[in-house]
What we know:
The strands form four sheets. The chain has a six-stranded parallel beta sheet with strand order 2-1-3-4-5-10, with helices on both faces. A three-stranded mixed beta sheet has the order 11-8-13. The protein has a two-stranded parallel sheet with strand order 6-9. The protein is an alpha/beta fold. It has helices at residues 11-22, 40-50, 64-68, 71-91, 124-135, 157-165, 184-196, 213-223, 256-260, 270-281, and strands spanning 2-6, 26-30, 54-57, 95-101, 142-146, 149-150, 171-174, 178-179, 182-183, 201-204, 211-212, 231-234, 250-251. The protein is globular. It has one domain (2-155, 181-208, 251-268): NAD(P)-binding Rossmann-like Domain (Rossmann fold), CATH 3.40.50.720. The longest helix has 21 residues, at 71-91. The chain starts with a strand and ends with a helix.
Amino acid sequence: MKIVVTGAGGQLGHELVDAALAGGHQVSGFTRAQLDVTDAAAVLSVMSRERPEVIVHAAAWTAVDACEGDVAKAMLFNGTATEHVVSAARKVDARVVYISTDYVFDGTKATAYVESDIPNPQSVYGVSKLAGERAVDTTVDSIVRISWVCGYHGSNMVKTILRLVDQHDTLTFVDDQVGNPTMADDAARMIVRLAEGQRGGTWHVTNQGVVSWYEFTREVLHVAGLDPDRVKPVKTRDLIPPRPAPRPFNSVLENRALMNSGIPLLDDFRVPLSRLVHRLRLG
């Protein structure tokens, strides 16, 4: 297929381009500098020239706390920009795979979220990403929700943990927010597979395994050959200073649509985490 990837400079975008190339597809990846997705004319110009069959729309403003302080920018980059991508897709007869997030849920559910659960975002970031979801037509397009993404490219929690552990004797992370850590390369391969299958609808794509941020940090240190007991737990309410944007306490996304479709789920997160940590530590 001919695939266009927006946000190709991000940690997931890098992996999406690599995964699509590995799948034998013709791929054009556009970074933020190469394509301003908030510019409708620019989006239409690029898509008219490229004529893709699929647009994987990974471009987004993902700075959760910064979004909280700039509603207009968040809605422009995550909501309106997605409208531009979908509009251009319709004009060139392309499908859109829109990358969304666990933040569209309020995090209060006692069990894992499934694709059919009603979103109820509590942060500006979550509201803006839900606006993007509502811009797509799931009879044709796909929504892929991912969570707690970490990878070799860009900024993410694994890199933060490895940096902090070299600077501090102990690390403190919350133990009352739980989710599915998801490695960008694994997620990208599944997203490309869904694009290949021309599968519309809503999908949750995560690595398996549920942990808190405290437990995840201990796993990172364990894989890195360091002492996990250097990590101490804290409750979200006791964070100093508190985070500007509310985080979902429950970010667990059950991959029910994948299971119902007979698609094998991604590995437990510890498998790709080991791969990632060793790659990062070896430089």
